[in-house]
Design brief:
- The complex is a heterodimer of chains A (450) and B (435).
- Chain A contains 15 helices and 14 strands.
- By secondary structure, chain A is α+β, with helices and mostly antiparallel strands.
- Chain A has a seven-stranded mixed β-sheet with strand order 1-2-3-9-4-8-7, sandwiched between helices.
- In chain A, β2 and β3 form a beta hairpin.
- In chain B, strands 1-2-3-4-8-5-7-6 form an eight-stranded mixed β-sheet, with helices on both faces. Chain B has a five-stranded mixed β-sheet with strand order 9-13-10-12-11, with helices on both faces.
- Chain B is of the alpha+beta class.
- The chains are: A alpha+beta (450), B alpha+beta (435).
């Protein structure tokens, strides 16, 4: 067992000495505590305490989902997540729902497919189970969460219903240019890599899941040594830890093999892939591989993506009116990352949109951004991070994610320092070296020409 | 929906002030309603200003007008360029956005607390001093046209538009908020400017500001930026009656979709009616996922009729409606789904409801309110429709009113609204061509 680490942070990283226009990292003057410990059964446990909210939030991360889904079982992790609240420890779905309602608790383990463009949490790299209630129900809630996660029953009748539900979502997504284009990009950018698998699976894989397979996979994937659990609460962290030791701490370690996610093959040249759909808009995704989070260039890559995204918004949307939504984002694994620019536009705008995105990248290869632009991007990134970490459940989610990515649950404590160290020359260099407009995938879905 | 602990009404220099715990509610001399909620969970401040200007104030000729105006308000003011307005907040680590609905347009600004002064200055400038530059109209029309295309490609949006057009036929609510490309193309700047000047006056607005601030300092800022604008003469609210076309037959639209979408709409009490909260509890019981009787009847058994069911209340000033939304992959099931739904609803008047049934609605609402207060950027967005339609009093007392509902009142509401059913049933079913 690792030594229990308690970190007291008073006035978290109050950073000063920036240019007047730079935001500073300030928090309330209340203290926060963190407990980080690996339990004997391998469960990686993080507890974050501060008194500012009554919400008791837990996130459980299942590691390396895409690489651990067996051959031909694409989507089994998503399916298992959907089954968790449909039968556990002898309770049927209604009884579980009632127990959750009794304490006002919610469990979210999948994206809501009916709210488009909002999914910032689903990943091919890991799964999530988010649980929320408030302090007065925390102990009861933690027990219930344990029963749901560790004692899932997988009733046959619910398996059949869930198959129909997932097939319905897959069918609905197949009609969406956005979803189709996104899947096409991943299939091509990560060809022969686990990330090519669609998160939901396919009708062919989902249709043949058996109860035995689900039970076996659940036991393996949600074994304590494949999970990271983060709690954000206003309850004393040692008390919460004692609850968790008495529940999740009893789960058995799985000594069978787990598979890490390795870097994909490099892209050589520009590859264009297209799915023709009878729609008013065409969706365009341009993807390229970049270094991973372990790279010292990761903050500069993040910054470059943010600046490009802002420029695309300004030039392609605000000046040319080409799209309602346009932007760029990047994702990281420890040893590789990928940057994706996307735009949805009328099919007549296809050429202008594609060349517009490329020209924005090209412009930054030759001209570095100004100090002012850099500072603005840094402020914007810091503000976005503050916003997305405002809720306890997101704090728990990102603690798990950062721990999984190998940079530590508290990676973001000095996030502002990291991005402040990036220079305009760094941004130009990382774009020149990594954002290869001659080595990218261009995926499109929709109507390409009349 | 915080419980009001202390409510003091103070008349001071023409301001009526109500203090409710950490919530302060007052009206500026120019008529702008202000709600300040201290919340110290994050070092951020969020301000949502609700303007009572939505698509229901439009007509067939200018449908989409309000939404286009919302876009135009990001194109510069008398003293700030478009870039300064849009990027200024982001450059200070903040977020700025807006949304248009049928009864309101909402302007959201979130900013780190240290830049609250700057953020409110920008927001007030955007709301009261925008210049709607002629040169920006073509570009904004193009962006809105792209937004319309995006919505048209979304099957769910198409289904919802169809249901709305049927239920609210002949009323302003039937029109899409976003409008049509044809009407957007013909919008003239002068008429948008007239509409802006008429509707965007402080006495037609409510500001809900929540976040990490001290109330006295925030009141000074609010007075400085929102209080400096003179009152206007907002137009009277349009008055009309909504009578949904209740009938037994399902109204069908064919569309190239794999999923069949269905909505069954029934009358519900107005938010100001005495039995509203009992009916709200009933609605939430029907929407209670796995334990909902409707969910069990439609998605349970060996051969479930549908894949998903949800139930919600649509609260407007003129009418409240109960909407039952259903998805199925079998279009041939729509009539059995309707029959089963009616059967379940007709059984409710004879069902005995318990205190536990009510508690399972009230507790999640209480917890959700605490959760929502953590999400400062969502808080105002979630509350805005209620502010525009029902007023802050409804929000403030909502949990208390819900908590006071007795099982017998739920039974009475079931008897009143479900004994003799009338409904509008619509379905969008798969077809190879758009109808």
């Amino acid at each position: 067992m690792k030594a229990c680490i308690i970190i007291l942070i008073v006035g978290l990283a109050v950073i000063s000495g920036f240019l007047p226009s730079q935001v500073s990292a300030q928090t309330n003057e209340k203290y926060s505590k963190f407990v980080h410990e690996t339990l004997p059964n391998g469960l990686d446990l993080i507890i974050s305490y501060n008194p500012d909210s009554r919400v008791f939030a837990v996130n459980i991360l299942g590691k390396n989902r895409a690489s651990n889904e067996p051959y031909g079982k694409d989507g089994i992790t998503d399916f298992v997540n959907r089954m968790l609240t449909l039968g556990a420890d002898g309770m049927n779905s209604e009884e579980i729902q009632n127990k959750l309602d009794d304490i006002g608790a919610t469990i979210t383990a999948n994206d809501n497919p009916y709210i488009p463009y909002d999914d910032r949490y689903t990943s091919r790299a890991f799964s999530f189970i988010k649980f929320e209630t408030i302090d007065e129900y925390a102990n009861q809630g933690e027990h219930l969460l344990y029963d749901i996660v560790s004692k899932a029953d997988f009733p046959e009748s619910e398996i059949a219903k869930t198959k129909k539900k997932v097939m319905g979502i897959i069918g609905m997504n197949s009609g969406s240019t956005y979803q189709t284009c996104r899947d096409l990009l991943y299939r091509t950018l990560f060809s022969t890599h686990p990330f090519e698998k669609p998160v939901l699976g396919t009708p062919a894989t989902v249709g043949i899941f058996t109860r035995d397979e689900l039970v076996k996979y659940h036991k393996h994937f949600y074994a304590p040594n494949n999970m990271i659990m983060a709690v954000a609460t206003n309850i004393d962290p040692d008390t919460v830890k004692s609850w968790i030791i008495a529940t999740f701490g009893k789960m058995e370690k799985d000594n069978s093999t787990y598979y890490d996610i390795k870097p994909p093959l490099k892209i050589d040249g520009v590859e264009e892939v297209h799915a023709e759909m009878d729609k008013e808009q065409i969706y365009i995704y341009m993807g390229m591989l970049v270094p991973g989070l372990k790279s010292p260039d990761a903050p500069a890559i993040n910054m470059a993506t943010a600046i490009l995204s802002s420029r695309m918004g300004l030039n392609l949307r605000e000046k040319q009116g080409l799209a309602y939504s346009v932007g760029m984002d990047c994702e990281f694994m420890p040893d590789f990352g990928w940057a994706v620019a996307s735009i949805g536009t009328g099919f007549a705008n296809y050429d202008a949109a594609t060349s517009g995105i490329i020209s924005q990248i090209d412009a930054m290869i030759t001209n570095e951004p100004s100090n002012e632009e850099l500072t603005k991007a840094q402020n914007s990134m810091w503000g976005s991070m503050l916003l997305s970490r405002a809720s306890r459940i997101n704090q728990a989610f990102y603690m798990c994610k950062n721990e999984f990515l190998g940079v530590g649950y508290n990676y973001e404590n000095d996030y502002l320092t990291k991005i402040r160290q990036v220079t305009p020359a760094d941004v130009k260099r990382v774009i020149r070296d990594n954002f290869g407009i001659y080595d990218m995938i261009i995926a499109t879905a929709g109507k390409k020409a009349e | 929906m915080r419980k009001a602990l202390v409510v003091l009404f103070i008349c001071l220099a023409g301001w009526s002030i109500a203090l409710a715990g950490k919530t302060t509610i007052y009206t500026l001399p120019n008529g702008m309603e202000i709600i300040l909620k201290e919340n110290h969970t994050s070092p951020l401040v969020s301000s949502v200003v609700v303007v009572r200007a939505g698509s229901k104030y439009e007509n067939d000729q200018n449908n989409g007008f309000t939404h286009l105006l919302e876009h135009m308000l990001f194109n510069g003011t008398e003293t700030r360029s478009r870039e300064e307005l849009n990027e200024g907040i982001k450059d200070h680590g903040g977020y700025i956005n807006a949304f248009t609905q049928q009864a309101l347009t909402g302007y959201l600004m979130v900013i780190p607390r240290e830049y609250t002064d700057y953020g409110l200055d920008v927001q007030a400038d955007q709301l009261f001093h925008s210049i709607l530059p002629e040169a920006e109209f073509p570009k904004e029309r193009d962006i809105v046209a792209e937004e319309i295309k995006k919505d048209n490609d979304n099957v769910e949006t198409r289904a919802q538009d169809f249901f709305t057009s049927v239920v609210f036929a002949g009323t302003p609510y039937a029109r899409p908020v976003i409008g049509y490309e044809a009407t957007i193309k013909n919008v003239a700047r002068d008429s948008v400017m007239d509409y802006y000047k008429e509707h965007y006056v402080p006495n037609n607005m409510t500001a809900l500001i929540i976040g990490d601030f001290e109330t006295p300092q925030m009141q000074e800022l609010v007075n400085k930026y929102f209080g400096a604008v003179p009152a206007g003469n907002p137009p009277a609210l349009p008055e009309f009656k909504i009578i949904p076309p209740y009938k037994a037959e399902i109204q069908i639209k064919k569309f190239p979709t794999k999923t069949t979408f269905m909505q069954i709409t029934l009358p519900a009490p107005l938010y100001s009616d005495s039995d509203y909260y009992a009916f709200d509890v009933l609605t939430q019981i029907l929407d209670s996922g796995e334990s909902s009787p409707l969910n069990k009847a439609l998605t349970g058994g060996e051969k479930p009729l549908s894949n998903e069911v949800s139930v919600s209340l649509d609260i407007e000033k003129e009418i409240s409606l109960l909407n039952i939304s259903i998805k199925t992959d079998k279009p041939e099931n729509i009539q059995p789904i309707l029959d089963t739904t009616i059967k379940v609803l007709k059984e409710l008047p004879v069902r005995k409801f318990t205190a536990k049934d009510v508690s399972r609605v009230v507790v999640p609402n209480k917890v959700n309110e605490i959760k929502l207060e953590e999400k400062l950027h969502y808080y105002g967005i979630m509350k805005a429709p209620y502010l525009a339609t029902c007023g802050y009093g409804f929000l403030e007392n909502y949990i208390d009113n819900l908590s006071s509902v007795a099982p017998a009142q739920v039974e009475a509401a079931a008897m009143k609204y479900f004994k003799n059913l009338k409904y509008v049933a619509c379905a969008m079913v798969p077809a190879s061509e758009v109808e």
